[in-house]
Amino acid sequence: MFNQRKYLKERNKTLKKLNICIQCAKYPISINRSKYRCDNCLNKAKKINTDYLKKLRQQRRREKVCLNCGSLYVCNKFNIHTGRKNKELMCEICYLKKISKQHLGTSKKWQLLENLFKKQKGKCYYTGIKLTIGQNASIDHKICKAKNGQNNIENLCWADWKINLMKRDLDIQEFFKLCKIVVFYNKL
């Protein structure tokens, strides 16, 4: 009896040894881009995948659910650098994963950021302003990267995005000193 699975497994094994595309069995594989497929097949697969993801994101946007995972719990994401609302809808977990990827190098450490938020009791590290993840909360480096601050959880804190923009590349003492000068000058 013919076993298709076994046949395909053997066929693919042979094609891999010969460095021929396992999808079309016509062209040599693209050594720089793939282990098993030629450039033509890779480009076709990429286009199909891109079209599918585009349609999926449009559908999720219409349904007003998280664009990444499809969760019903939605939060608006602020663009930290400009303060304008981005049109991307994201659930809190996907938002934390994205921030984790940016600051800790992997999305798998998102729970560390969530725990840090809870440890700070949902308040800005510098001002005590109540923070909401996905709205006014942003991650700040206590010792900025420009002054050799590290991307580790001990050097990160949650801050109001406006305060984070004001602090920029200052360390904590310089930032507080600058705030005192502003208050003193305006006699507040």
From TrEMBL:
Q: What is this protein called?
A: HNH nuclease domain-containing protein
In which organism is this protein found? Answer: Candidatus Staskawiczbacteria bacterium RIFOXYD1_FULL_32_13
